[in-house]
Amino acid sequence: MRSKWSFFNPSQVKPEGWLLRQLEIQAEGLSGNLDKCWRDVRDSAWIGGDAEGWERVPYWLDGFIPLAYLLGNEDMIARAKKYIDAIISYQKESGWICPCAEENIPTYDTWAVQLISKVLVVYYDCSGDDRIPEVLYRVMKNYYDLLKSETVKLFDWGKYRWFEAFIAIKFLKERYSEPWLDSLAELLRAQGTDYTELTSLWKRPLCKWTYDTHIVNLVMMLKYEALVCDVLGEEYTDKAEMLHTLLAAYNGTPVGLYTGDECLSGLSPVQGTELCAVVEQMYSYELLYAETGDAKWAERLEVLAFNALPATISDDMWAHQYLQMSNQIACRKLPGRPHFGSNNSEAHIFGLEPNFGCCTANFNQGWPKLALSAFMYSGDTVLSAVPIPSSIKTESFSVTLKTDYPFKNRLEYSVSTDKDITLEVRIPSFAKELRVNGAEVSVREKLSMKLKAGTGGRIVIEFKTVPVLIDRPHDLKAVKCGSLVFSLPIAYEKNALEYEKKGVLRKAPYCDYEYIPTSDWQFGYASPFFEVEERSVGEVPFSSEKPPVVLKARVAPIVWGLLPGYETVAAMTPESRTPIGEEKTIELYPYGCAKLRMTEIPLV
After folding, report:
1. CA-CA distance, 201 to 329, in Å (whole number)?
2. Are 421 and 382 in contact (CB under 8 A)?
């Protein structure tokens, strides 16, 4: 029915090359230091403090734990254990684990139960801590008892994210064959939101905050059928494709996101998308590919990971945006009423906690979980699912991928095995002139190579990608080459904003930053042809100053104009598409490198 792939144990995964450097930067930045500088993690109620005791510590641990283990960073591993130890120590005899007084449980949004249960699975996968299965058993059995007795009911976030608990249910079903686990799954589904009943709301977004159109709920939702079918053994019908197609048609962006600032926001290139949505959509695609084996999810994952994720985080990963825009000419506080659907005037500036702190804690799952998705397996078949530099080592075989992909299209595999295995490599649909060890082969979705015990060797796969213009709404265009989307970069200066808020002194490097444009941005493409120029990958892989690949493009100046009422937001469409000056050649940067950018512009 479905092609199911499994993730390797984190202890078997080692990031290499630019991916290793990306994780190191993350550990040196905000993700690796939140427990030192941010009160909501440092003094959280989850560990006995008096700060936030709901989603922020679990969100942070969800990325911090795999980051620590992928890097083998003993200090970070010890700090993760300190948090897990504290959380476990506060677990009640009943099994309840969240920092909430017993009398308040009926009014406590149990999204936190679903989230911490997922984090405990992540911690077990990374650490092998033999306490976790029993702790998690008690958490979920208590959850079942509370739901069955109607002491608690799903509402608010828990009602819209009910399927997240299925990750823990699956974990427990692999260890305990007890009927209540399926009953819990059925209870959650019965009380949870059925998103197929909400699709009419996605076609005409309103400037109104609602759970029904909340962007993070929707990107999480994409994986719900796959999780349900996995746990309950039901037939998978690919509802995710139908839901994705509808969301993209009415709210899509060039980098595979849906606009959501904070709820669905339509097709304007100056509406935003919340960073939590980026990493949760990536996670949905990772699970969808593992559960279905359908290559479209892995290819869509690449587009998100190589464009949307790095674009919305500063080069040193000490600052992030709450919202990113496709056409983003400045990141400055907006005067008066912001043009975003339901976010404030600073949601798109870079900083510690712009607009709301969920993304501060949650964004750090993006790169580590992508690293854990690079290779997958089924039986004796090893799959290179996302071709990023990394290696897998087990007791019987090892596979290392050396590559600068997506900046260069060369994949070099080194394999050593003590048993018969099959190595499969997913080939992107856009790959042209595919060669294996120098010999041209026909392009197909997957290459399969059988390797005998006691053998090893080197396999080099090369292909070409061609820059193309893709159509966008309002007769605008975006440029794509392979999985990379390219933008017209806008030079900028940073304005640091240091101040104290909510008990945190925001000081460099974890203060807020406005990005002020210093170059022109009002252009249209003068030619549909582009020239690729590859460069070396530097210390910052997605550098905003030294991108590892650029496109040479011909452009002409036009009158674009500003969104009425704003001085730092581009108009949705240009005032005129008629060139007002001489053509010139410029460099387009990868979207993920261009912090200020114009991505959707006309062909004039």
Report:
1. 30
2. yes
Nearest CA among 10, 53, 54, 59 for reference residue 30: 59
* CB 387, CB 411: distance < 8 Å: yes
pLDDT at 1: 38
Q: Which amino acid is at 248?
A: A
What's the one-letter identity of residue 176?
Y
Compute the distance between CA of residue 124 and CA of residue 348 in angstroms, rounded to an integer: 36
**CA angle 165–147–94, rounded 5-degree value:** 85
Cα separation, 445 vs 428, whole angstroms: 7
Scan for tokens 């404030």, then name that residue.
Answer: 344
3-state class (DSSP) for residue 269: coil
User: How many angstroms separate the CA atoms of 530 and 552, rounded?
Assistant: 6
From CA 280, how far away is CA 111, in angstroms rounded? 15
Query: pTM for this one?
Result: 0.98
User: What is the Cα 19 distance to its own chain's centre?
Assistant: 15
Q: Name the burial class of residue 450, with classes exposed (0-12), middle (13-18) and buried (19+) by CB atoms within 10 angstroms of its CB.
A: exposed
55 in helix, strand or coil? coil
pLDDT (tens digit per residue) in 315-373? 999 999 999 999 999 999 999 889 999 999 999 999 999 999 999 999 999 999 999 99
Question: Closest by alpha carbon to 122, among 111, 137, 134, 132?
Answer: 132
Token pair, residue 69, equals 């283990």
| Residues in a beta bridge with 585 | 554
Residue 91 exposed, middle or buried by CB count within 10 Å (0-12, 13-18, 19+): middle
Whether the Cβ atoms of residue 206 and residue 259 lie closer than 8 Å to each other: no
Distances (CA, A) of 177 to 173, 174, 226, 435, 544: 6, 7, 21, 48, 52
CA distance 368 to 70: 7
Structure tokens at 209: 């905050």
